[in-house]
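Quick one: structure for this chain?
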Amino acid sequence: MKFEKIVLQNFMRYKGENRIDFSCDDTKNVTVVLGDNTVGKTTLAQAFRFGLYGEILVEDGKKKEDYVLLNKDVIEVMDTTSLASVGVELAILNEDIRYILKREIAYGLKLIKNQLELKDVNHTLTLRKENINDTDAASYVKEEKIQGIIDELFPRDMSNYFLFDGEKWRDIKRGGIRDSIKESVHKMTGLSAAKRAMYHLKDMGGSSAISKMKKNIQGSGQIYDNIQRDVDSHYRKIEKAEDKIKLNQADINKHNRELEQIERWLEENKSTEAVQKNIKNTRLVLSAREKMVEHSFKALRNQVSAQPWTYFARPMLEEALAILKQTSSVRRDIPHMHQSTIDYLIRRGKCICGTPITGEGEALEHLLSERNYLPPADIGSLLGSFEKTAEQWRGKYDRYKENVLDAAIDETDAINEYDQTVIELRQLEQQLEQQLHGSLNFGEKRSDLKYHREQINVLTADTFGQRQMIDTYKKKIERLEQEKAAMELKNKNNQMWKERIALAEELYCSLCAEYEEKEKKLFLNLNQGIQKNFEDMFNAKDKRIYLDSGYNIMMSYQNEKGGYTVENNLSEGEKIARNFAFIVTIMEYAQNQKLQKDKMMDTLPLVLDGPFSKLGQENIGLVAGILPKMSEQVIIFMLKKDWDYTKLDEYVGRRYEIDKRAKESYATIKNI
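Got it. Here's what it folds into:
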């Protein structure tokens, strides 16, 4: 199977008619289209999908309605009286038959609520079938049968393999690829046909061929009929439980897709979330420091208000003490004594030392002399007391000053820390604004993440319960069938149906055994092939790639003990390497099936959009060198900068370049 040409008419970025003729040579089987980023490589890949299936690949975070298929330059010159069409034509070669498929949509502008809106007014799909050896012997396929033929030639569930989107395949979980791997592989290898036969024979439950044949067996009497009704009832319950399991699985898949989108969104915005967390924490710190400024100010105010007189009295005290020091008078007073003390001793007539005080005695004379130097006659004692008080006030002033200064320093430090936090917060907010073009609610996303996980757990538990119910009903049916069998032996008319049922059971068992054997062999071959191709393409001897039982593509690293440890956090390059190895292995298997004339479907061309963008230079060459050998036809849309590393010149039969001028909004295809 090969693509012969593709013709684009006003398709998205491409204005007017643009045509690419693909190389169909058996040796030079590669067609390459080179272009820079954002010039229209992915648009070409979208054209294949639109031509084959009437749809395009929708990016994450976008809706189908966000895409406009008709070229924007064409739309700009339209009015309400004009029509313009967008179309894709594909020529496909399949042995001696050429299929020419053309899908077209006509658009018009309509005035709706005073605004011009683009509306599709007509869809056409044609398929011309001709013999390449006799082009006159051509015919058109009826429109209602066209899509069926296309889906038969290019199965839609295989489109993720032969229409390879490097961005989509970078994460195997995206777009449902992971869910369809096993089903797609089984379809390609023919195992799905055997599975359908087994399902029709017995696995459909009450609607299966074997169950329907069993209903033709007649028992004798009411007891037999009651048993049969119970059997039928159990089958209906099994079918109901199986339907519930399917619904649960569909819901689980939906929740898983939502989970993967949220996890990917969180991963892509991880740095932004970290900034938001820092902003939140910084705001808490700012609030705490604002309170600290307020607390420090109150403490400073209290210290200033405590004994302010010690501060204001200090200059006067210093001046007074200085004056006292300048005086030449000698202190002759007795500390802590006054004239009233001497007067008391004279009235008592006896000194404190016990000497009598008489009218003309020496003691009286001496006391009267000392009395002249005591206050209030002499202020020496008061001055002494003043000096002591002044010294005490000096101490209070020093403590007051120290306390006020400490409080002022605390207040200054608090203000500086607050100001610094304000600066940090502004810097974080500016950083966040640079990263964002809108608000991102991480709390809401993580809440959604929790919700989807909880729903998956609920659905998984319910599925487990449904399976247990199915097992219970099957055991009941088995017991009831044994009772019926004992009663059926009494009726010779059931012999014919018994023989048919036995034959069907034998066929079912044979299919099961063959299916298990082929599936086991397929699984082993794929795992051997995927590891070999991985080593050949990426020269990675220390890594191992394989399919697990669920056909998930796993990668592991060799550890120090000589074993292998599964690695879940893969780089972008490793993800593409893993997925490339798988796709090449599938293509290789299909090619071997064809050579053995045991194929279930034709090998498909490989259309690659940006396959090497995340690979290293050495790996680009290794991967590219294998692709022409694994597929009959390879079509690559890639960056100019990666071309030299592919070393594909000897395989290239056709080469094109996307021409996009700076002043023009549209692109054109040039043959080089």
